[in-house]
């Protein structure tokens, strides 16, 4: 469903990704681990087209991105509707209520009617345990609550896959737990996802783990195998 | 024996002491005369060689010679020339007399010394040769240009009230040109200016008969300080002599002026009568009228501000978006636009919009462009000019606002599948808007005061009206000035309060980004 082939990306003269290939099947949870600066974030950003790359290819649900200075904006938009992204810093929209944040994708990207969008949004808020915060402003929520809203916002457009870039790194352990619980719940439901994480408990339950180092996937395999050595 | 040398020494000392005195006696005392050379021909203007000429210029030269003084031209703004008599003559811009088409008026004669007339003018109505204006009675419904604060201004205002669209402007030549180009319907001018411009502009015609401006003939007189009694007498003597011995006739009949007529002949018999005449008609308006006029023009000020500012905001936002998100082909020209507009004065931009661009359009001689040129009315040019001027500042405000929004906001919106355009509209702009509200409100207050610049375009807003009213009501100069300033303050202070409240609410209310 997601396939990355021989992806190479430079920042200036620095080779950030060096021929990365990766396949993700429907319903799989893929964990990306590795030392800082290894290129994990960059890989995720290439997969949903936030970055361009020099060569290789990305394909998500039939939408193909190739190397070059720009991407075709129509392909990009279709691709992004099938692959959502959750950021380390949440990036909620501060001028909207929690409910409006969750509705923003359906309303402005899918052009749904308000009633339909609101019903979905409330259901999702319930799912992440924040039903009663619908009218709150993001600024008045804790970090863990904000990240859960961000997850609900991403799910609202019903993406085939979700990319998580260190979703709990900005949170203290208690709040991280709340967020991880939600993510486990999603995984159990068969949501396809790629998760960059330093949380070994979460990585242990992944379908596959890839170890990234200096722009390359140096090892791939079941969690037990990879994580043992990584530690 | 000893006495003689000492006597000689004394005489020598006396001689030496008196030398500087002799020198000053040879250098004539100046006769500083106040005039506004921009008022133009035929009063005072520069000829083809760049030298000053004009019938008033020649008159001043004549008077200085008669009084055995040296003529010194002192430039001033026409409407404010009488004020220059309030300062001493020997300071910068100080004058002994003002001589510039000022008519005999009760309020001025009460404050200043006034000479016998040097010319009798009438008011001439002029229109384009192709215009359907053929009598004075055709004026209602038309736009009529006059020199702000002049007798013509007062005459038209009194005779036609609000039935004509009165356009006041400090520059006669501009008005004539606009009528000539059919961008204005008609103009009423003092007969000397009319005579000159009728021969200058082929497209103009005199309409009907020239009329007398008031109950008395229109007397051009010279004003001086009330305390300068001797100067007044000397001037009257010189004026009477010039009229009697034919000097004036010789000056006025020159072909370039063509000003001598029966009205001037009729001055001769009045020279034996007392001057000034008793019971000059009072001209000033009652307070309720003045206040009503000021309030109406304050309404125009508000109208200019509330129409031009939203336009400025819209243009500014468009420019800012183009600069921040556009490709270089878009962002570079927009950057130039902002710098050009910010780097040139508002007054100049208004001139461009109202005079230069229509002139260029007319010169194309294409129907569509000519139509467009005639559609550029003073009000439209004013609103557009303010909007364009402020759009540059608004663009900079918005640009700063857009750049202040963290990159993650745009990325989050894109990741949800929004198009760039939707992300800008739904996510970035609303947040930037909050940041820019305080500077934008401040700019609105600034624009509010800058509407005064439209007064150069015949738009009768508050400042223009103040200029007109104090001209007609010289005794109320101070009261009118305070009233006008008070009106501006009454309109802008609530805005300032609002700005401060918004600022406080935005600063305290919400902590923005995670
Ligand atoms: N915009 C950029 N400009 C220049 N270099 C960049 C940019 N973004 C990332 N890099 C560089 O690319 C390399 C990979 O960065 P990336 O953020 O993908 O690593 P990471 O594996 O996500 O690390 P971390 O665990 O710290 O998040 C780093 O050396 C980083 O300095
Ligand atoms: Mg990273």
Automatic annotation (TrEMBL), chain A:
One cellular-component annotation, GO: plasma membrane
UniProt-annotated location(s): Cell membrane
PANTHER family, A to Z: AMINO ACID IMPORT ATP-BINDING PROTEIN, L-CYSTINE IMPORT ATP-BINDING PROTEIN TCYN
Record membrane topology: Peripheral membrane protein
Name of the protein in its database record: Amino acid ABC transporter ATP-binding protein
Keyword Cell wall biogenesis/degradation in record: no
Organism (species): Limnoglobus roseus
SMART domains reported in the protein's UniProt record: AAA (SM00382)
Swiss-Prot/TrEMBL keywords: ATP-binding, Cell membrane, Membrane, Nucleotide-binding, Transport
UniProt similarity note: Belongs to the ABC transporter superfamily.
Domain ABC transporter as annotated: residue spans: 2-231
GO MF, any single term: ATP hydrolysis activity
From TrEMBL, chain B:
Any one GO molecular-function label of the UniProt entry: transmembrane transporter activity
GO biological process: amino acid transport
One Gene Ontology term, aspect cellular component: ATP-binding cassette (ABC) transporter complex
Keywords, comma-separated and alphabetical: Amino-acid transport, Cell membrane, Membrane, Signal, Transmembrane, Transmembrane helix, Transport
Subcellular location, record wording: Cell inner membrane; Cell membrane
Residues of the signal peptide: 1-23
Domain ABC transmembrane type-1: 298-499
Source taxon at top rank: Bacteria
Record membrane topology: Multi-pass membrane protein
Membrane-spanning ranges: 294-322, 334-357, 476-498
InterPro entries documented for this protein: AA_ABC_transptr_permease_3TM (IPR010065), ArtM/GltK/GlnP/TcyL/YhdX-like (IPR043429), MetI-like (IPR000515), MetI-like_sf (IPR035906), Solute-binding_3/MltF_N (IPR001638)
Family: Belongs to the binding-protein-dependent transport system permease family. HisMQ subfamily.
Protein name as it appears in the record: Amino acid ABC transporter permease
Organism: Limnoglobus roseus
